[in-house]
């Protein structure tokens, strides 16, 4: 196969050149399929470095080169190969009658939805202009009706675009504009299909819900990473990796900018005196702006007006059961900021309770990411560098006294228990 | 049994033959009559009669009661238990393991923490199931209120970590004595000659429970030893032939040596 490819290569190239010349403005059709001499010469002299298109790259080499430069190839390799060989005719010009008829149906539906949106907007504005005394039920009923109408408007906005193949394509290519409701809707649906299920399962399995919070329904996607290492929910992370502050990527699926607080809690701090566990705050920052398009949230970048407690590296003393570290993203009330100086005074690291924090400052938990930690070779070094005491403490299981006292040896065993028979007992 | 039932029909047919013979009295008539002969069964189904018999199953044969299996509660409510104590033996799951309890292979409920046994129901967890749990204090109640913090116990003591003493090299084979009684004797260890490319290896305890380098370091061993290998060219028959002849000559030489011995 390679030989025949090699043999055919000049022919293919010349054919391609001929095609390109055909497509040019000066459409002169060459009678021979071989390339013109000046064309050939130009190609050989320049010898451009191959530039890979992320939409059509199929070779492993090209993919690697692209990824090295920070661009990731779009879609699957199979899709890229298909795109490469296709003519990339836009949808409007595709010569399939049934397809075009179907598009017309979709377009008609979209028009209908757009009209409904306009109508709904008008109804909302009309209702807002009305005096609540004229409405049965008064102000409360008016607000309820407005709320339900707005919900319906959002529904219509999504229904207008949900069947558009181009929107679906743009979303799958990762080019969706998160300011538009349809892309937020699609992203939310995708998140709920897998990522949310995983994080909810971890919340239940690791007992985050009764231990940290009484109830919790995550509504935002939180991805956790330390430097380059991304962490899956509930994964065990080496203490040397988690020494640096984490990087968060928080994707919210509802519109608008809001302020959030970020808390990192260790809910398995052993307390030997009380033979119990307590929790500790490893990081606390408030008033961090977040919006659907502004997803990056590196914890090390918190400013003086945001940071309450700086990052304390997670550590688990030797022998203690695994520590659960949960990174909570808490949405503050709209338009309200928390005072970090005041928080610094009031909130201690040791014995931090997320339940009371949530109740006191009226923040709403929207997302969580969880990782776990155990003693490893690097923990002592990490604790030393962070100036934490207690690296030389090892936890050992407390001996539980058996219910029955050990029975005294009888018979043969009693006779052979003396020092004379020590050789019998290894 | 069949014969007596067939008898009347046979008789009738024979009578008909006799009548035919009387009328025609010839060979052909007889044949015709035989052709008309047909035996009709009284009914197509054979009926059998069931007689009284002895039942084989059920309680009739005096069912044997096997030896008792000593099932049931081994620890009653609020009794103190330690981890591993069996609380309930059962066939199937009459009781389910609750707080600080677990279920064994034969559905036995046993304690996983020391404390006091509680028998309880938890309608929020399951509407019908009954659970056995262990609480740390006798006055504690199960089930816990909804969404309250779990009760936990550390069950550990903090001890000072005993660091293993730094291991001294105690190899006595390569020791060299230097100096004499007047100047004082010093013992020096000759450095063991390492193989080429293995200098300064960093051996660590790895998952296979052996002290070795990482795989990527092993892979770089030839590079460190500066071993040069001529690049393999697939169609270079000349080099291949030369190598083959050298190898064959070597083998022949070895064989010759072996024979002489």
TrEMBL record, chain A:
Its main location: mitochondrion. Residues 404-426 are annotated as: Disordered. Residues 404-416 have a biased composition (Basic and acidic residues). Component of the mitochondrial ribosome (mitoribosome), a dedicated translation machinery responsible for the synthesis of mitochondrial genome-encoded proteins, including at least some of the essential transmembrane subunits of the mitochondrial respiratory chain. The mitoribosomes are attached to the mitochondrial inner membrane and translation products are cotranslationally integrated into the membrane. One of its GO terms (cellular component) is mitochondrion. Signal peptide: none annotated. SUPFAM superfamilies: PEBP-like. This is Large ribosomal subunit protein mL38. InterPro entries: PEBP, PEBP-like_sf, PEBP_euk. It comes from Amorphotheca resinae ATCC 22711. It is found in: Mitochondrion. Keywords: Mitochondrion. Belongs to the phosphatidylethanolamine-binding protein family. Mitochondrion-specific ribosomal protein mL38 subfamily. It comes from the Eukaryota.
UniProtKB/TrEMBL annotation, chain B:
The lineage of its organism: Eukaryota, Fungi, Dikarya, Ascomycota, Pezizomycotina. GO terms for cellular component: mitochondrial large ribosomal subunit. Belongs to the bacterial ribosomal protein bL27 family. The keyword Ribonucleoprotein applies. It is found in: Mitochondrion. GO terms for molecular function: structural constituent of ribosome. GO terms for biological process: translation. Its main location: mitochondrion. It comes from the Eukaryota. It holds the Pfam family Ribosomal_L27. Keywords: Mitochondrion, Ribonucleoprotein, Ribosomal protein. This is Large ribosomal subunit protein bL27m.
